[in-house]
Amino acid sequence: MFSRTYKFVITTPPLLWVTVFLLVPYALMFCYSFWSVTPAQAIVHSWNLENYQELLQKSVYWETLLRSMWIAARVMVFSLLLGYPLAYFLSFYGGKRKDLLYQMVIIPLWVSYLVRAYAWKTILGSEGVLNTLLQYVHFTRHPLEFLLYSPFAVVLTLTHIYTPFAILPIYAALEHIPRNLVEASHDLGATPAQTFWKVIFPLSIPGVVAGATFAFVLSLGDFLAPLLLGGPSGIMISNIVVSLFGAAYNWPLGAAISLGMLLIVVSLLFLSERVEKKWSFS
Amino acid sequence: MSRPSNIPRSRWLLAHASVVFAFLYLPIAVLIFYSFNGQGVGGFPPHHLTLDWYRVLFSDGAIWDSVLNSLQVALAAMGISLTFGIPAALALDRAQFPGKALFRRLVLLPLILPGIITGLSLLMLFDLTGTKLSLVTIILGHGTALISVATTEVFAGLQKLDRAQEEASLDLGADYWQTFWRVTVPNLRLPIIGAALLIFTLSMDEIAVSFFLIGRDNTLPLEIWGRLRRGITPEINAVSTIIFIFSLVTIVVWYRLRLRSEGGVDVGTELLETSEDAVAAAASTR
C-alpha cells in the first residue's frame, strides 16, 4: 500500500543521519587506533600497530583493565543478588501494589546519575553522614577511611545505580512465565523449591542474562564514579582513556584502548545472545 | 498475573525487598535532607536546619545559565531524535532496504554502549572536520544517541496501530503527507509524547557524552560536576533536590501516559528486547 517514493522518503533521512553520526564515528575510532602521535603531539595518519604493541607490553593497562573488569563483575553479582529476589517478589507477591512497586523500581533509574553518585560521596566521606553517625553512636572513634576513595565506594555506588537495570528485565522475564506451568509443577508433586529451580529459574534466565549484561557493560565503561569516589586505587580503564584524550594527548592510544573495551563488550553481548537464545521460552 | 495458589507467602522475600528499596531510596533521602542542613553536606546529627542553601542557589547566576543551556540542548536534541527517530521507526516497520538489520542495531547501540565510546567517537568526527566544540556539538551527540529512544517507543506504537485507517485515508484520496500528519501521527500521539518526555529527561541528565563534546558553555550536569571537583556545599544538595523533583514529575507523567496507551510495552520488556537487539547488533558487526 505504500509507494516506493514514500518508503524512500522515510528511509533516507534517518539512514544518512545514522551513517554520518554513528557509523562514521565508530569507524573513525577504528582508524585512529592504527595511527600514531609524534613527540610534537601531531597525529600522523600512517597505519601501524604501535598502539596495540604498547597495550600488550605495558602492565599498567592490563592491570587497570583487569581491575575494571573485577569491579564490573562485583557490581553485576551484587545487582543480581539484590535484584533477582526483588523482581521475584514483585512478580509473584506484588498483589494490588504491584504497579506502585514497579514504578518505585523505575523512578531511581531515571533519577540523575550524577545526583546519586554525589549522594554516596556525601554519605561515605570521612566527615560524611555515615562516619559521623558511627562516631555519634560511639561505634568507632576515628572515621573509617576505607569507605570513600576506594574500589569499595565505586562498587557500592555502581551497584546502587545499576540494580534497577538488572531488576527490570528479570521482572519482565518472570512476568512472561505462564502461571499454569507453576501450578502444573505443584500438581505433579514438586516442592516449592523444586518448582523454583526446575521451572521458574530456568525460564527467567534470559532476563538474568540481560540484566547481568547491562550491569557489567555499563559499569565497565564508567569513568565518572571512579573520578568522584574511587581515589587512586579505584581508577578504571575509562579513566586512562579520558586522560589520554585530555592532558596526556595520545588519541591513537586512547582509541586503541576504547576499541579493546568495545571488543570485550561486543564479545559479551555475543555470548549473552547465545545464552538467551538457548534458554528462551518462545 | 496473580500469585498461583501453591506459592507460599514469604517473610524473607518481603524483608529483602524492603532492604533493596531502602538501598535505592535512602541515599536520595539523605541528600534531600542535607540540603536543609546549615552545617555542610555531612555531619551527624544535622544542625541548624535552614533554607539558606536554596537562597544561595536561586541567586547563583552560573547555575541558572547552565540550566538554560541544558534546556536548549534538551529541546534541540528532542527535535533531532524525533525528526529522525519517527521515520526510522516507520522505515523499520514498513520498508525493505539493504542493510536494514544493521541499521536497526546501529540505532540502538548507543543505549547499551558505555557513553564514553559514543562521546569519543563523535569527538574524533568533530575534530577531523574542524567543528568547534560548543552546545551544538552536544546537541548533535544527544540527538543522535537518543534516536534509539524515539525509534523503540514509536516502533512499539506502530505494532499496535490499526493499518486500515491509513489504508482508508489513502484510498479516499489523501496523499502520503496528509495521511502521515492526519492519521499516522495522531494515532501515535502517546508514544511520541512519551518518547519526547523521556528524551528530554535523559538529555537534561546526560553527562558521559557531553563530557567530551563540551565547549565553553556548561550544561547543568557539567556545571555541577565542575563544582564537585572544587569542594562541596549543600547548595549542590539543593540543586540535586530540585532535579530529583523535576525527574519525578516527568517520570510520573510519562508512566501515566504509558498506562493510557493501553497495554504499552513496559520498560522491563523494552530493556530485555533492547539487550537482545544490541546483542544481535554485536553479533552482526563481528
Summary, kept brief:
The complex is a heterodimer of chains A (282) and B (286). With 282 residues, chain A is mostly helical.
Describe this structure as you would to a colleague:
The complex is a heterodimer of chains A (282) and B (286). Chain A contains 12 helices and 2 strands, in the order H-E-E-H-H-H-H-H-H-H-H-H-H-H. Helices cover 76% and strands 1% of the residues of chain A. The model of chain A has no long low-confidence stretch (mean pLDDT 88). Chain A has a single domain (51-279), classed as MetI-like fold (Orthogonal Bundle). In chain A, a hairpin with a 5-residue loop joins strand 1 and strand 2 (43-44). Chain A has a two-stranded antiparallel ribbon with strand order 1-2. Chain A has helices at residues 4-32, 50-57, 59-93, 98-110, 113-124, 129-136, 151-175, 179-187, 192-220, 224-230, 237-245, 251-279, and strands spanning 36-37, 43-44. With 282 residues, chain A is mostly helical. The two termini of chain A are 31 Å apart. With 286 residues, chain B is mainly α. Chain B folds into 2 domains: 10-50, no CATH class; 60-285, MetI-like fold (Orthogonal Bundle), CATH 1.10.3720. The longest helix of chain B has 34 residues, at 61-94. Classes of the chains: A mainly alpha (282), B mainly alpha (286). The interface between A and B is large, with 114 and 106 residues.
* The CATH homologous superfamily of the largest domain in chain B: MetI-like
Radius of gyration of chain B: 23 Å
- How would you spell out the order of helices and strands of chain B? HHHHHHHHHHHHHH
Strand content of chain A: under 5%
Counting structural domains of chain B, the number is 2
The helical percent of chain A reads over 70%
CATH topology of the largest domain in chain B: MetI-like fold
CATH fold category name of chain A: MetI-like fold
> Which regions of chain A have little confidence, pLDDT < 50, spanning 5+ residues?
none
CATH A-level architecture of the largest domain in chain B: Orthogonal Bundle
